[in-house]
Amino acid sequence: MSQSRRVAIVTGAARGIGAGIALRLARDGLAVGVLDLEESAAAVTADAIAAEGGTAIAVGADVSDAGSAQAAVGRLAAELGAPTVLVNNAGITRDNLLFRMTETDWDSVMGVHLKGSFLMARAAQEHMVAAGWGRIVNLSSTSAVGKRGQGNYAAAKAGLQGFTKTLAFELGKFSITANAIAPGFVVTDMTRATAERIGVPWEQYVQERAAAIPVQRVGLPEDIANAVSFFVDDRSGFVSGQVLYVSGGPWG
Ligand code: NAP
Fold it and tell me: Residues in domain Ketoreductase (predicted)?
């Protein structure tokens, strides 16, 4: 199958890492379904892809809602072609120490990261199975090993690693691979919000974080997009069930 005819869905692609991934996959020759909560926000990324001569459609959907996820995949399949690449990137944080963490904090984070990835993978897999080829990439995090104030997020990101390996076992016979990327600190609105929440000026926060990273710099969405591009590549068909830490160092 020609790489240029493939269709990818990237969730949470209105901004940040997801936008970087969507742009990179479009540059790799894929048509991209840019999915985010608000279609108008997703359209900014889709327009940027179109401006470069790529093909993209913006779709508004909530990945944590089964009907919304299924409808989004159905619409993209009808308008763009059968999606055989899925990047589960949509995410939120609701950080708090355990004694202050509410059930809503817990449920929202589980809903978007874990349930959302499950619902999107379940909806997209039928197209991959029918094509006899597919790529699923899930966004985990270095927080998966545990992080103060992130009980919900760490549990979800660790859970995604188990989910990814299970997908690799179940879907391998259809030439579908499933891998996870665990980014370290990446400059996006999510990390800006963390700096704001803990009251550290952004520039200082970035400098401190960079100093603690072996390569002495923070990550950019392009760093994560590059790893996604590798997993999605036709030549990566023997790489499945892996967790790649993209964090400027070896830790996870
Ligand atoms: P971001 O800038 O906050 O972007 C996340 C995007 O996901 C937003 O556009 C958001 O939409 C969307 N989204 C949230 N809930 C959604 C839902 N239910 N359905 C559809 N879309 C939804 O985050 P980011 O920093 O780029 O992070 C992207 C992924 O990488 C996340 O999974 C995150 O956990 C992971 N990650 C990030 C870092 C980092 O340092 N930045 C490190 C490790 C892992 P709204 O704008 O409408 O909320």
Answer: 6-184
- C-beta of 185 in contact with ligand 1 (< 6 A): yes
* Side-chain half-sphere CA neighbours of 91 within 13 A: 24
Beta bridge partners of 28: none
1 band by pLDDT with thresholds 50, 70 and 90:
very low
Tokens of 56: 């993209």
Q: How far apart are the first and last CA of the chain?
A: 35
Give every CB contact of residue 106 below 8 A, 6+ residues apart in sequence: 94, 151, 152
Directed axis angle between helix 66-80 and helix 116-131, to 10°? 30
User: Is the separation of the CB atoms in 145 and 184 below 8 Å?
Assistant: no
Atom of ligand 1 nearest to the CA of 16: 26
Mean pLDDT over the full length of the chain:
97
What SS3 class is residue 34?
strand
DSSP label of 115: I
Pocket-testing residue among 9, 34, 37, ligand 1, by greatest number of atoms within 8 A of Cβ:
37
Amino acid letter, 14: A
Between CA 130 and CA 13 the distance in angstroms is: 26
Q: 197-207, pLDDT tens digit by residue?
A: 999 999 999 99
- The pLDDT value recorded for residue 191 is 95
For residue 173, the CA-to-ligand 1 centroid distance in Å is 31
Residue 2, pLDDT > 70, answer no
> Atom 47 (ligand 1): residue with closest C-alpha?
37
Distance CA 84, CA 1 (A): 11
- Are 34 and 46 in contact, with CB atoms under 8 Å apart? yes
pLDDT tens figures, 219-233: 999 999 999 999 999
